[in-house]
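Practice problem 4.
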């Protein structure tokens, strides 16, 4: 998210989820980014499992 915001690629919904109304006055700390990365890493196995199931189901 930090990368997307710093490069101007964050969508309005991305910003709204973070309660950001004014991107020019927003500061995003590395602690927040670290927490988001941790949450994504925790959830990734479930996403991967669902993707593998979908691929297998589509192939049958």
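Answer key:
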């Amino acid at each position: 998210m930090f990368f997307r915001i710093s490069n101007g690629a964050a969508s309005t919904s991305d910003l709204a989820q973070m309660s950001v109304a004014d991107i020019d006055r927003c500061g995003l700390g590395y602690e927040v980014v670290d927490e988001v990365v941790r949450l994504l890493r925790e959830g990734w196995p479930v996403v991967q499992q669902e993707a593998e199931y979908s691929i297998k189901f589509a192939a049958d």
